[in-house]
Amino acid sequence: MISSNDFRTGVSIELDGSVWRVVEFLHVKPGKGSAFVRTKLKNVQTGNVVEKTFRAGETVPQANLEKRAMQHTYKDGDEYVFMDMESFEETRLTESQIGDRSKYLSEEMEVNILFWNDQILEVELPNSV
Q1: Last residue of a domain, one of 60, 78, 109
Q2: The 3-state secondary structure of the chain, one letter per residue
Q3: In whole angstroms, what separates CA 5 from the centre of its chain?
Q4: Distance CA 72, CA 104 (A)
Q5: Is residue 129 part of a domain?
Q6: Domain tally, the chain
Q7: Tens digit of pLDDT for each residue in 25-77?
């Protein structure tokens, strides 16, 4: 669990069965009434952005994300095959899961793949391709 007072840009939380990343946040302390935190959240799976307000000190579940270093080994039809650098297991992703990043993928490129509950959320390419 994470308190709304601890929100920072890039923090991932779970709401309504989805993973959301904090894009913007603002702690507001009005003259009357209690403090609150106004946030802009991006759904990691769909890319939708919503604004949500939390009471100060409200706790929400923090998303248990796992980042794995993987290497793009080859393309098999419309699937991209990645190998886990630690366990040497293969993971296959479709072009729709990778999106526009497929243009920049080359064989033997090392990428980070973000997992949540053994579900692939995002493929992070290196800063320089």
Answers
A1: 60
A2: CEEHHHCCCCCEEEECCEEEEEEEEEEECCCCCCCEEEEEEEECCCCCEEEEEEECCCEECECCEEEEEEEEEEEECCEEEEEECCCCCEEEEEHHHHHHHHHHCCCCCEEEEEEECCEEEEEECCCCC
A3: 20
A4: 11
A5: no
A6: 2
A7: 999 999 888 999 999 999 988 889 999 999 999 999 999 889 999 999 998 88
Which pTM does this prediction carry? 0.76
Among all chains, which residue has been given the structure tokens 């391709």? 129
Residue 37, amino acid: V
- Do residues 95 and 103 touch, judged by C-beta distance below 8 A? no
Query: What residues make up the domain containing 14?
Result: 2-60
